[in-house]
Amino acid sequence: MFLCTVCTVLAELRQSEARRLKRLHVELDGNSSLRIVYDLYNPQALAWASFKDATLQEGWAYLHIETNPNFPDELTAYAAGVLEAEATRSLISKQIQNRYSKYCSNLQRVTCKRIGRYLQKQVNYMYRRALSGRKKSAFWNQIYLLLKQFTGLNDHFNGAVLQSGNRFNASEPLTMMIINWEGDLLGIEQVLPMIWPVRDGITKKSSRINTKRGSRIPGLYVRDSRSETGNSSYLSLPPGHCSALIKYVDDNIYIGHTSWFDYDSMIRIEKKYDFAFRLRDDASPSMVPGRRLVMTSYPGCLYSLDEFYLIGSGLFVMETTLDVFDQWILRRCRVKSVPTWMRSMAANRLSASGEEWVRHFSQENSGTYNNQYMIVDFNKFETNGRTVADDVLWVVEQMPGTFVSRDLSSVLRGKGFFASFNVPYFEEIRKINRLQDFEAFTTFYKYETNPRKLIFDRDQDGVESVSSMMNLMRYNDYKNDNLSTCGECKPPTRVATFAIAARADLIDLEKHPIYIFKGLSGATDAKAIDFNGFKRQRIALVNGPPNENVPTFSWNDTGLPTPAGHPDKFDFPIVIHDFEESLHDRAPDESQTRCGGDVMIDDEVDEKIINNNTSRMQV
């Protein structure tokens, strides 16, 4: 009787899921035109997609796209972009309304024109290099395919005729480029006055970057995340943009990450890309090692932006952002380059080891969106008896014109953990960035005394499961934790951003130095995996700021309108979503309910509710 009841509940839940799940594909309509078809399965489609929008129920939408290896890669890449625009159009439109619609109007007009010129020059350079080099260079072939995927996304979202031969032209509207170059724009906005003289009526005083070496104003580029009208006025992040931890214990590796971002960004999509791309544009049948990847992402964004990737090659990749404080080194940024987001995606697809990932990523440095990347090789971890052998953990840090990278497996093996908190690990990078100029008057930018570093050192011993990792990545008890104290504040004050998961909206601006500010930003999510979760491509996820020891974030409390597509209150549960193994090999009745045997509950999860292919996890 119990098993029958479980089967009935499963059947009803999956029928409800089927009503919410979109299935679609792109197929050829003539020689080069494309058309989108819903529901019907076509094994000869260029690409297939499934999409479920559970943003108001679970905090996440779920997108799965797979390309057909029997067609040319440039054709299927374009089709993949078209499918993403079609499936997620509503969420993209809401994200634009909330976050990007006022971007150019909030900048001086000539500044936005400069950004357009910069991006046009960069795209033209990439096309020129990719078209001439993709037959011999695996790197340039992947850059070309990313440009084709982006073209498909941009074409269909903006209503262009879907022709596989279309080439992207970086002219207005810039919206889709702003979405995808958002991380890189953090650097581009800073460097533009250096590479192009001030003109067109813009005064030097209003646009010049302070290039004095060793500037002692850490908050020079920190601005409130939202204006009084509730619109994002700048694409900016607070000092410190993410927290991350890798923990080795009991023959397992646990990984956690929390993104620090503006609260108007909290429409989230977990994505699975299964792109059957070849290494090069030649007759070789060799496929990229990173054909499949799962990532946390955003509407219209063809990469993670969180930079949180589970890759089918056996690699896991994540990052935390590094600010550029010595403005002098921004002169090393190059227009003729490849933006960070494209280099990371190319490296994800091409690499079978951490060292390979660093080598691919280090090409064509743009000097924009400078990060510390951590690459965990779960293949080496598994083949060495689930121990941290050499080359299990590689770390690379980027600054304009510079990379420093090393195998840091010995650190993970010796200490049992590696923490990341937006301060460079490598002394060379700290010196290049002149962080010593800030260490004299603040603990925030000093590696050994950074508040998050101290909290990680103290609390990492408690991580022994995905649940406990999620607890740590959501940790903010600033009112009671002495490690959250700002010692240089007058008087010394506990600060809501001196925590693993920041809450800048809880800051009292009058009490703090310039680099600590009040704004509608902070930790907007948490993610965690272990070895088994990586193998199954399952991420424990939660959307929204932390709320265990601090108030639950509510738009109603801000006095601002709730952004489009957002709930008023962010109190979502932790969820784990299971993507289908394949869309190409899907049998016509695969989505039907099948019951029989035992109902298994994962030991890792305290409570698991079967709901729309997504597990809810209480921790």
Describe the structure.
30% of the residues lie in helices and 20% in strands. With 619 residues, the chain is an alpha+beta fold. The chain has a domain at 242-333 and 344-576: Penicillin V Acylase, Chain A, CATH 3.60.60. An eleven-stranded mixed sheet has the order 2-1-3-4-7-8-9-10-11-12-13, with helices on both faces. Strands 5, 6, 14, 17, 18, 19, 20, 21 and 22 form a nine-stranded antiparallel sheet that branches. Strand 3 and strand 4 form a beta hairpin. Helix 5 crosses helix 6 (138-157), helix 6 (138-157) crosses helix 10 (340-350) and helix 10 (340-350) runs antiparallel to helix 11. The longest helix has 25 residues, at 109-133. Residues 1-11, 197-238 and 588-612 have low confidence and may be disordered.
Please write out the topology:
Layout: H1 2-20, E1 22-28, E2 34-38, E3 47-54, E4 60-67, H2 73-87, H3 89-100, H4 103-106, H5 109-133, H6 138-157, H7 175-180, H8 182-195, H9 204-207, E5 242-249, E6 252-262, E7 269-274, E8 292-297, E9 308-311, E10 315-321, H10 340-350, H11 354-361, E11 371-377, H12 378-383, E12 393-399, E13 402-407, H13 409-415, E14 417-420, H14 427-432, H15 436-439, H16 451-459, H17 466-473, E15 485-486, E16 493-494, E17 521-523, E18 525-529, H18 531-535, E19 540-543, E20 574-577, E21 608-611, E22 614-617
Parallel strand pairs: 4-7
Antiparallel strand pairs: 1-2, 1-3, 3-4, 5-6, 5-14, 6-17, 6-18, 7-8, 8-9, 9-10, 10-11, 11-12, 12-13, 15-16, 18-19, 19-20, 20-22, 21-22
Helix pairs in contact: 2-6, 5-6, 6-10, 10-11
